[in-house]
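Incident log, support desk, overnight shift.

02:14 A customer reports that sequence design results differ from what the structure should imply. Their input is reproduced verbatim below. On-call engineer (initials T.W.) acknowledged and began investigating.
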């Protein structure tokens, strides 16, 4: 019995030593992966106070809103590319109210990142990076969620802009950091911070209402090395979809619905297409027409130049363009006529119905004014062969 007890004690001791060694190896692996900074009490208040001055509100010329932060040096601001992808100058506002213009000097389209160069350098210190924050570590996000609402409601004055939310790192990959910290429209481009105030990611997108994603700061670090390599002009994107009513006025009046949309480059050049179906009835006339019904299918293709008349507060675009409009007319017309039979029968009225077939392609010049949710457009389609049949085209629609 004593030998068995001694053997059991020996086995237990060996097992404990093996387990301790295994735990030691695992602890070493955890240490090498980076445990993150030590989070002291009241760190949220401290980090917000120390970093807020370096966070900015970014306004695009078309009125869209985002967030950025001073990074790399006092002349540069980092943000998400979709915040500044118009290719036009943007306005940067600091917490104290100071504003300055900025130009996009480097982009990473694969990771939705952009680096801006300020027209005037700031006194705010650049935020520092941290790339080793593990899953489960606390995280803060500072931004301007729904920041424009404060302009329209006195009750929200002093709120929304430069506000902070807290969460944890829920998961991470090379492409994204997942978090449950509140990221709302207006937070895009803002810093995601560790509890020691270092940037771990750039707020980028939201899934449903509670799952946010940021781009790891390592991609931003790589982008800073390309600052100033080339001037960013913008990219192609869908713009100015519209649904409304169209009028064509030539020898008669056609009215009906239309659907249109544009693809714009750098927010300056636009390729616009529209399609619609119009209807015309019998106009008031002294001619012996008793019935007339015509359907017109039309399609437009226009290349335009977009002028931003009133940026920021009331974005208004005037687009001047030229292109072509194609029409197909189908319908019928009934006329009254006098039939003269052989004598001795008396003359009689006869109704004659004829098919209407027409259409063609004409050059089109147009001017379109876009004011928020409303689009108004005038176009002149020239009939080269029969100038008197040239058409005036008017559109009034709702943009989306």
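02:41 Re-run completed on a clean worker. Output:
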């Amino acid at each position: 019995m004593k030998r068995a007890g001694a053997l059991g004690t020996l086995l237990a001791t060996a097992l404990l030593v093996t387990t301790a060694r295994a735990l030691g190896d695992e602890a070493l692996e955890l240490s090498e992966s980076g445990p993150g900074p030590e989070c002291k009490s009241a760190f949220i208040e401290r980090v917000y106070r120390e970093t807020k001055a370096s966070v900015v509100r970014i306004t695009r010329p078309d009125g869209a809103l985002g967030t950025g932060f001073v990074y790399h040096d006092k002349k540069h601001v980092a943000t998400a590319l979709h915040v500044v992808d118009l290719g036009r100058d943007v306005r940067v506002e600091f917490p104290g109210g100071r504003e300055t213009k900025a130009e996009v000097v480097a982009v990473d389209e694969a990771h939705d990142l952009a680096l801006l160069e300020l027209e005037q350098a700031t006194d705010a210190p650049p935020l520092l990076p941290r790339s080793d924050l593990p899953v489960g570590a606390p995280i803060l996000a500072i931004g301007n969620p729904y920041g424009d609402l404060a302009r329209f409601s006195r009750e929200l004055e002093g709120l929304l802009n430069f506000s902070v939310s807290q969460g944890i790192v829920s998961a991470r990959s090379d492409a994204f950091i997942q978090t449950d910290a509140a990221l709302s429209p207006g937070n895009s481009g803002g810093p995601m911070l560790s509890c020691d105030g270092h940037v771990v990611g750039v707020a980028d997108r939201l899934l449903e209402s509670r799952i946010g994603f940021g781009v790891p700061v390592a991609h931003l670090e790589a982008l800073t090395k390309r600052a100033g390599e080339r001037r960013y002009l913008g990219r192609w994107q869908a713009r100015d979809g519209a649904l409304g009513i169209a009028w064509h006025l030539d020898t008669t009046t056609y009215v009906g619905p239309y659907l249109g949309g544009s693809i714009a480059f750098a927010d300056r050049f636009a390729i616009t297409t529209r399609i619609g179906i119009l209807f015309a009835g019998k106009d008031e006339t002294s001619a012996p027409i008793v019935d007339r019904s015509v359907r017109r299918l039309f399609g437009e293709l226009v290349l335009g130049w977009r002028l931003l008349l009133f940026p920021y507060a009331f974005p208004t675009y005037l687009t001047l363009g030229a292109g072509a409009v194609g029409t197909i007319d189908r319908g019928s017309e009934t006329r009254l006529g006098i039939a003269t039979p052989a004598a001795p029968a008396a003359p009689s009225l006869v109704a004659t119905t004829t098919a209407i077939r027409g259409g063609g392609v004409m050059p089109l010049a147009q001017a379109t004014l876009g004011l928020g949710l409303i689009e108004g457009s005038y176009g002149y389609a020239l009939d080269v062969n029969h100038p008197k049949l040239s058409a005036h085209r008017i559109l009034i629609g709702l943009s989306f």
